[in-house]
Amino acid sequence: KPPIQSDSVAVIGLGRFGGAVAESLMRMGHEVLGIDSNAELVQKWADRLTHVVQADATDAEVLRQLGMNHIQHAVVAIGSDIEASVLTVLALEELGLRDIWAKATGTRHGLILERTGAHHVVHPEAAMGERVAHLVTGKMMDFLEFEDGFAIAKTRAPDESLEKTLSESNLRQKHGITVVGIKRRHADFIYAQADTYVEPGDILVISGPTNLIEKFAALE
Ligand code: ADP
Predict the structure, then answer these.
(1) Which tens digits make up the pLDDT trace of 50-71?
(2) CA 36 to ligand 1 centroid distance, Å
(3) What's the CA-to-centroid distance between 24 and ligand 1, angstroms?
């Protein structure tokens, strides 16, 4: 297989989501080709991305003329127009892109995108909604779930873990979660070790199955 020639990324649809993706990629030092059919948005992004083009991305021939067949990574950030989103993924798949990411607005939309050739489908609204649900009760300060029901979270150290080392409180045996690190006020994050001593007010960074993380965060 040929070597990857470039880590340029095409971002198609420069709305709120696509714009945020494109902006972050630029900050990370990537070349970004932004495409949108809306002239105003193209204008808005013109000097913020490496290249910005006004085009209808559902047209494979147009995409080829833009050199999209030489790019590996594309993010299809068209949301509300499901037909345009699906046709764009199809066009990119026909051009042979190796890494197509697409934003879905719902479960069925996501399924269609997968079957059309998207390699990764993201559900930003559903994912953020779930995250907020975990945060709103105040038990978790941060929560990130991976696809397979495995999560990482930040939560206050429960009473049973205070004034002892992690090996003494034995949280992994008792609760099925692993303490990855500890954040103490006015101190740097430290990686958790067996002899790490937990003090009142410490914040634990824990990982484990989502249901066990939820139970652990609910402890007083
Ligand atoms: P968000 O909620 O992230 O703002 P939208 O669905 O509102 O997402 O925005 C998607 C963007 O995709 C819009 O700026 C729209 O102009 C653009 N877009 C829609 N259809 C096409 C298309 N066929 N080709 C290129 N850009 C498109």
Answers:
(1) 999 999 999 999 999 999 999 9
(2) 7
(3) 18
